[in-house]
Specification:
This protein is an alpha/beta fold. The protein is built from 23 helices and twelve strands. Helix 14 packs parallel to helix 16. It is globular and about 70 Å long. The N and C termini lie far apart (59 Å).
Length: 496
Amino acid sequence: MSEPTPTPTPIDLVDTTTRDGNQSLWGATGLTTPDVLAIAPTIDRVGYRALDFTSSTHMAISVRYHREDPWERIRLMRDAMPRTPLTFLTTGMRFISWEPAEEDVIRLAFRLVLRNGIRRVQIADPMNDVSQLALISRIAREEGFEEIVVGLTYSSSPVHDDAHFATRAQAIATSPDVDRLYLKDPGGLISVDRLRELAPPLLGAFAGRPVELHSHCTIAHAPLSYMEGARLGFSSLHTAVAPLANGNSQPSAESTVRNLQALGFDSGLDLEALAEMSEHFRALAAAKGLPPGVPAEYDATYETHQLPGGVVTTMRRQLEEIRRPELFDAALAEVSRVRAEFGFPIVVTPYAQFLVTQAAMNVMGGERYSQVPDEVVRYFLGHFGAPPAPVDPEIADRVLSRPRARELAQVQPLSLEGARARLGTTMSDEELLLRLTMPAEQVDAMVHAPARPMVAAGGGAASPLVRLLREVAARPSISYLRLLQGEDEMVWRRGT
């Protein structure tokens, strides 16, 4: 008698195409609302655990570059794909602006993204500050998110050892407000060997509860690390469809599914719908002249400076724009020195940008720290939290002795107090929050932009459905719509 075929081990995929893939490969500006809405019903059929959909940064880009209402984008996507939870990524006590915000601003932001259709939140404090993660998780639970996922951001430094991550995972596990943990590796630094060391204490500290893995292909580690992560017990992997995968983005869903199957895992995805989704974004890339992701070669310099690939690309472009491209290698080397002086912050937004800006200024000026941007002054003032290691006291004295430091020390976090009186009493809460955190002229341009048809560049088979949803949304008398085509079903409900 033949042995029974073992049942494949299930593992979930979280799709990052529309947020992190778009951000990593297309500067977060590549996709408009019609681009994602046209394929939304197909994405809903794929069977992802969730869609990593937006963040306050992406919402600001919708306003600034496309003059689109980011709240409308969430609503339309919620209605077009009701089965797959949309995710909002937040770094904690800020919304759009770099300035820290009071709790009333964060609560309003959470209420609004929930009201417009977000169901899941991913929280990743840039310092891995457990107290901040617990606070934001509690606020998120009280405001009503269905699923709260807390991230620990990976980094390599004298203070970011196994104990750093394990003790924080154990502390997070005690919070009744956290449903899942995820290991966030923005630099794509985790190799198979490093994951084998880190995973047992990390997963053990979270007491057998679900842990997701999020990495980037910047130096070619991630595809192999994902397979090792599946073997070690991570429950979900974050991927993008092939046109927005690889390079500085996540591993592709297509190759990840094939590799998982070969190792005895089952993603449970609808592969036909996945292929349709991938073809949609491939056609968009061709129509818009956007570069599809390609596999990257290993580059050991990333192990030293640890910058996300997109930040490196931006730094190179900016040095070219000011006609100083010859400073690129020196600036990249300076990043590591600056990071040590800053107390080894994790090289992730916003600290990656702070490090790059200061490093570039240091190599361009005649003397290091002769120029210091406001954000770096505020970093040394402690406005962004306590660094994981002590800052260089000589550098701190130099930064904080500047006249500008005395001015910035008086800056208060953003608050809703007096916002209505300053900004107007008749606008919606959604518009109020945008005006509180963005330049007025950018919000004005969005508000007064003419309505545009919700049809993606290059059209697409979903365009008739998109037009139907837009027409239905414009008719207040219609509160519910159910469409059936074969075995496919789509349900639309008007938000309350």
